[in-house]
Automatic annotation (TrEMBL):
Protein's UniProt name: Pentapeptide repeat-containing protein
SUPFAM superfamilies given in the database record: Pentapeptide repeat-like
InterPro entries hit by this protein: 5peptide_repeat
Claim: Ribonucleoprotein is one of the keywords in the record: no
Xref: Pfam families: Pentapeptide (PF00805)
Keywords: Repeat
Length: 276
């Protein structure tokens, strides 16, 4: 969520990562949240968080974990915030309610775009991924009224089919052999010790991995789409070859200097160094 004061607003076609300096802290105002492990307070939708400063920066940005707001650390708009401000609303300098509705449409579309960037490299499914990416790139440039007619669910379903094909292709002939038993889509693995499980080429789409112990686990070609990695211990894990990982998933997990990450993603700065 909001981390820096807003500055000049260059126009961008479709960014894939958040730049809070080019937004108006829409994510700190639009969504409501209930007091929980992720947010220390109740906040109604459409009202500014009490920690939001007048310059659109978070007043407790450096202490979000300590102050009970880890949900703000893991939230990522994938660049949808600056798209709303700079493109949909033409470089607006003030928030208005219609921006929040636009953000609700644009955030999932931007997440799909970020994932399709990986899928376009698929030899057999890259063309379908590129075709869908081009159509979504067009959608995200529509005006606020037209955005309201976008069927986000249909886009997600179509993207999901592309990702299915991409994952099947990546798993074909995987050297780890028989992949039966590694279809863990939607599995509840909360808090489990998975250090001895062979999760290479596993399908972990939508799996609940909160607090799971994945230390040192090789996740080569494991599908991570939508897996909940909050608090998962991935120290020393090999995530570099995993499929469909996103930045927020890494931020939510607990890694260290020995954890490998996909080349297109940034190592979270708060991950601890390895023990000497
Ligand atoms: S705590 Fe900071 S980042 Fe989180 S909603 Fe409030 S102002 Fe935004």
């Amino acid at each position: 969520m909001s981390g820096a004061p807003a500055g000049p607003a260059p126009r961008s076609a479709a960014p894939r990562s958040a730049d809070c300096s080019r937004c108006l802290a829409l994510c700190c105002v639009g969504p409501g949240f209930a007091a929980s492990a992720d947010f220390a307070i109740d906040k109604p939708a459409g009202t500014p968080c009490p920690h939001l400063r007048a310059d659109h920066a978070c007043g407790i940005h450096a202490q979000l974990h300590e102050r009970g707001f880890p949900g703000c650390v893991t939230f990522d708009c994938f660049g949808a915030g600056q798209q709303v401000v700079e493109v949909t609303f033409g470089g607006a300098s003030r928030r208005e309610p219609a921006m929040f509705a636009a953000l609700e449409v644009l955030r999932p579309l931007h997440e799909v775009l970020a994932l399709l960037d990986e899928a376009v490299a698929s030899p057999a499914h890259g063309r379908a991924a590129a075709d869908l990416r081009a159509r979504v790139e067009e959608m995200v440039t529509r005006d606020a009224e037209a955005l309201g007619t976008v069927d986000v669910g249909a886009v997600r379903r179509e993207a999901g089919a592309v990702f299915d094909g991409m994952v099947a292709e990546a798993h074909a002939g995987h050297p780890s052999g028989d992949l039966r038993g590694r279809d863990l889509r939607g599995a509840d693995l909360v808090g489990q010790d998975l250090r001895r499980r062979d999760l290479r080429a596993a399908r972990l789409r939508g799996a609940l991995l909160l607090g799971a112990d994945l230390r040192g686990v090789d996740l080569d070609r494991a599908e991570m789409l939508g897996a909940d990695l909050r608090g998962a211990d991935v120290r020393g894990a090999r995530l570099a070859g995993a499929l469909l990982v996103t930045g927020p998933q890494l931020v939510a997990a607990r890694g260290d200097a020995a954890t490998t990450v996909p080349a297109h993603l940034r190592r979270p700065p708060h991950w601890i160094p390895s023990a000497p």
